[in-house]
Amino acid sequence: MRKFIPHIPTLLVMVLLFGVSQVLARPQPNATPTALPSAFTYQGQLLDAGQPTDGSYDLTFRLYDALSDGKQIGGAVALTGVAVSQGIFTVQLDFGPGAFTDARYLEIQVGTTTLSPRQPITPAPAALYAASVPWSGVSGVPADLADGDNVGMTSVSWGDISNRPAGLDDGDQDTTTIPWANLTDVPTDLADGDNVGMTSVSWSDITNIPTDLADGDQDTTTIPWANLTGVPTDLADGDNVGMTSVSWSDITNIPTDLADGDQDTTTIPWANLTGVPTDLADGDNVGMTSVSWGDISNRPAGLDDGDQDTTTIPWANLTGVPTDLADGDNDTTYSAGVGMTLNGTTFNVHYAQVIVVAQSGGDYTSIQAALDSITDAGVGKPYLVYVAPGVYEERVTMKAYVTIEGAGEGATIIRWSGGSTNPLSESGSATLEGANNATLRHLSVESIAGAGTAYAVGIHNNSVAPTISNVTVTVSGGNFNYGIHNISSSSPTISNVTITIPSGSVSVGIFNYAASPTISNVTVAASGEINSYGIVSYYSTPTISNVTVTAYGGTNNYGISNTNASPTISNVTVTASGGTNNYGIFNIFDSSPTITNVTVTASGGTYSYGIQNNFSASPTIRDSAITGSTNSVYNDNSTAKVAYSMLNGPLSTGMTCIGNYNVNFASVTCP
Questions:
Q1: Residue 453 to residue 421: CA distance in whole angstroms
Q2: Cβ(628)–Cβ(606) under 8 Å?
Q3: pLDDT of residue 455
Q4: Which of 195, 428, 656, 667 lies in the 20 to 30 Å Cα band around 173?
Q5: How far is it, in rounded angstroms, from Cα 27 to Cα 16?
Q6: What is the pLDDT of residues 245-283, one digit of tens each?
Q7: CA-based nearest residue to 558, from 578, 539, 543
Q8: Residues of the chain with confidence (pLDDT) below 50
Q9: Distance (Å, rounded) from C-alpha 548 to C-alpha 582?
Q10: Tell me, what's the pLDDT at 12?
Q11: Tell me, what's the pLDDT at 301?
């Protein structure tokens, strides 16, 4: 039996084997006709990579009523240790009596691999003869059909039917009649047998009539004006003129200035005014009388001489002169305070728990040397390693509770030209190794492997969860190139990151194995000669949102590839193009991603699939636009649920759809 190791190079070989295996088993004629018991002999040929195989294999056979999907007939027949010589095997199969009542198709499973397509079971000559046996030669025919027609059951007499409902017993479909007089609980008002409704009610029979209606009309009883009480005095005369007239002489508390009967104020002579300012006592409005300079008191000392300048004060007579000016010039004496250093006349700020890495003038010239100098970082004592602009040719391992911050993407660059070891088992290929509770931001990471190098990795995370933001990652030169590599329960937070893999036999933007990263606002572009992968997930549950993924240039291009994985994918744009086989999103082996508001395009090449699902994959797709020139959505032994999405390209079976449409906004019905 074959064992498949889940990493990128082996996956390619495995998929190619599946492609060949679809035509591996074909039935060979059984030369010896026999009687027709429920068991039969089946002979086939098994090939591997186009060549006949030898050895012992575990084979499982299942019988179906259709070439694909359909209903399984009988149980599975599992045979262990079947001998195969020069590719030929012979087995006895028994799916029980009555298994072959219609067209049948045999499905063969070698070990854990199910071959496709199913093989049709064709009839032997004796079976063809049986199909033409005359009716008279058939035995065991039911008596009701012995007359040779398809009428079915012989007639049944009405009288032979038992338990007839009482209402049908008289032979018609109505119910027995019940006289009105026999009805019970009839309302009193209907007891007279008509549908008029309520019996009449006499006005005289109504009780509690309001007093104002007691006279039989709807007006109110009349009340004479004279009988009204509480009428205001001014209205007592019976008109609506309003208030009675008031005489001026009857008004009291008239203001003094109005007592003379007009609206002006009494005149007051100037001479009678009191408190007039002295300068106005002469009766004109010229203003203040002139004031002599000599008469002004409390003149400021600087103005006492009669001009507007200030008297001269010798330097020696000044008080409170700053110390730095006491020598009579304008230079300053420098000294560094707390948290600062002085270099000549230049001050440098030095913060606690901050280390500066620079190619000159910093605390260190190496990032790793700065990290190694930190021995007491913790949750209560985090550190910042600031890396000044420049290219730092070194390999860096992050440290817990330490933030590495550059001067900007493209300004600060960590570059390493090593690599070669398999990052699934060793970490020696990465330019930068992640750590828990550590942050990397505002810089670029480059892995530039030398010729013939097997693996090159930008950032490698093994069982850690760093925060990576505002970072550019570029990897090239290796046969297998990875931008960010996450394994063994790693759960990094990756945001505002740009990943570029321009070359290699196999190029992967982000690789996840048993990991659960959070990926947002990320741009991935991967181009490989054989395989190009934007994001790959094995046995992982990543969260992918607001991401743009492009895979191109390889023989096989995969935008997002999921194997036994269940990612959440939303607000993502995926493009796969330029190769022989192009897959926007590829799901295999029980993968069940949730795909929402995603634009997927697969174009060019021989085969282009927007979303392809193999071997029990079951994605759920909503509010998306999916384009594939071969198939927009394709299912191979898989199912897909698609709702309210634009499907541009042929569809396959195995889909559950609602509210979908094509590029022309015409409704799409899934097969």
A1: 9
A2: no
A3: 94
A4: 195
A5: 23
A6: 556 676 777 776 667 766 565 566 767 777 776 666 776
A7: 578
A8: 1-34, 153, 338-339
A9: 17
A10: 30
A11: 66
Tokens 């300068």 identify what position? 279
Burial letters 449-468, b for 16+ CB under 10 A, else e:
beeebebbbbbbbbebbbbb
CB 636 within 8 A of CB 643: no
Q: Rounded to a whole number, what is the distance in angstroms from the first to the last CA of the chain? A: 36
Strands 607-614 and 581-588: parallel
For residues 561 and 185, what is the distance between their CA atoms, to the nearest angstrom? 75
CA 238 to chain centre: 83
Give residue 20's pLDDT: 31
- Radius of gyration for the alpha carbons in the chain, expressed in angstroms and rounded: 50
Give residue 664's identity as a one-letter amino acid code.
Answer: N
- Residue 278 phi, psi dihedral angles, 5° rounding: -55, -40
Closest CA to 636 of 117, 164, 133: 117
Q: Is the dihedral of CA 122, 125, 127, 130 positive or negative?
A: positive
SS3 10: helix
What is residue 317's predicted lDDT score, i.e. its pLDDT? 73
Distance CA 330, CA 256 (A): 77
Q: Match 């559950």 to its residue by tokens.
A: 656
Beta bridge partners of 232: none
CA 204 to chain centre: 77
Closest to 88 (Cα-Cα) out of 16, 22, 24: 24
Reduce the DSSP state of residue 510 to 3 states and report it: strand
Helix (H) or strand (E) holding 607: strand 607-614
526 class by beta-carbon count within 10 Å (0-12 exposed, 13-18 middle, 19+ buried): buried
- pLDDT score at 31: 42
Burial label for 267, CB within 10 Å (0-12, 13-18, 19+), is exposed
The CA–CA distances, whole Å, from 506 to 7, 208, 423, 576, 606 equal 11, 99, 14, 15, 20
pLDDT value at residue 39 = 86
Structure tokens of 205?
Answer: 């029979």
Cβ neighbour number for residue 487 with a 10 Å cutoff: 21
Cα–Cα distance between 442 and 414 in angstroms, integer?
Answer: 11
- DSSP-based three-state secondary structure for 579: coil
Handedness of CA 358, 362, 363, 365 (dihedral sign): positive
How far, in Å, are 186, 455, 506, 526 from residue 529 at the CA level? 92, 15, 7, 10
Given CA atoms 364, 465, 493, 601 in this order, what sign does their dihedral have? Answer: positive
Q: Cα–chain-centroid distance for residue 129? A: 62
Output the CA angle 156-161-165, nearest 5 degrees: 140
Strand ranges for 327-410 from DSSP E: 340-343, 346-349, 354-357, 383-387, 390-393, 396-397, 402-406
**Quick check: bond before 142 cis, omega within 30?**
no
Beta strands in 219-353 (DSSP E): 340-343, 346-349
Token pair listed for 476: 């090239």
Q: Using the 8-state DSSP alphabet, how is residue 62 labeled?
A: E
Given a contact cutoff of 8 angstroms between Cβ atoms, the answer to whether 60 and 42 are in contact is no
CA distance 525 to 581: 17
The pair of structure tokens assigned to 58 is 């575990």
Amino acid 32: pLDDT: 45
Cis peptide before 619 (omega within 30 of 0): no
Task: Determine contact, residues 522/543, Cβ cutoff 8 Å.
Answer: no
Sign (positive or negative) of CA dihedral 393, 398, 402, 408: positive
For the chain, give the number of residues: 671
Token pair of 669, please?
A: 């019905």
Distance CA 442, CA 125 (A): 78
